Amino acid sequence: MDTLAARFKLFVLPFLSISLLFLPFLQATDFDYCDNKGNYVVKVDGVDISPNPVISGKPATFTISASTGQAITGGKAVIDVYFFGFHIHQETHDLCEETSCPITVGNFVLSHNQVLPGFTPPGSYKLKMTLSGAGIKQLTCISFDFKISFGASESSVSDS
Predict the structure, then answer these.
(1) 51 FRET partner, CA 20 to 30 A, in 27, 118, 140, 152?
(2) pLDDT tens digits for the chain (160 residues)?
(3) 31 in helix, strand or coil?
(4) Which is it for strands 59-68 and 106-115: parallel, antiparallel or unpaired?
(5) In this structure, what DSSP letter does residue 147 have?
(6) Rounded to whole angstroms, how far apart are CA atoms 100 and 118?
(7) 45, 33 Cβ separation under 8 angstroms
(8) Which fold has domain 27-151?
């Protein structure tokens, strides 16, 4: 029995430990660059949405991990939203409100918080985000799909 326990410790425990390292990547949202041939200053490493799916009427956070080989002093983030292929919304934010500026060479994180109106229809959406900087027309451009679901109504929660 001791050899079976030793084998378990030698093979299974390290495998489980390594698997746990990849767990955060399994929850990341897939994204595409707007132009695969684009030589963007900002390279996106990952997109995380919390909660996923987004719940209408509740706060959601879109977090984008990225890196740059060039310092960025400021700019803007333009967010376009599509529902069933139709452009339904656009908003523009100061880049320095979404991350700390100046952005130094290396890794950084953009974080955008949004509360969608409670009447937002559930379904599949596409978000396109374009970052531009001072003197640089396009730092990067990505798109990704996300889902919106209805939240639990207040009346469905009963007091105990």
Answers:
(1) 140
(2) 454 444 434 443 333 333 333 333 335 799 999 998 878 999 999 999 999 999 999 999 999 999 999 999 999 999 999 999 999 999 999 999 999 999 999 999 999 999 988 888 999 999 999 999 987 789 999 999 999 998 654 433 444 4
(3) coil
(4) antiparallel
(5) E
(6) 30
(7) no
(8) Immunoglobulin-like (2.60.40)
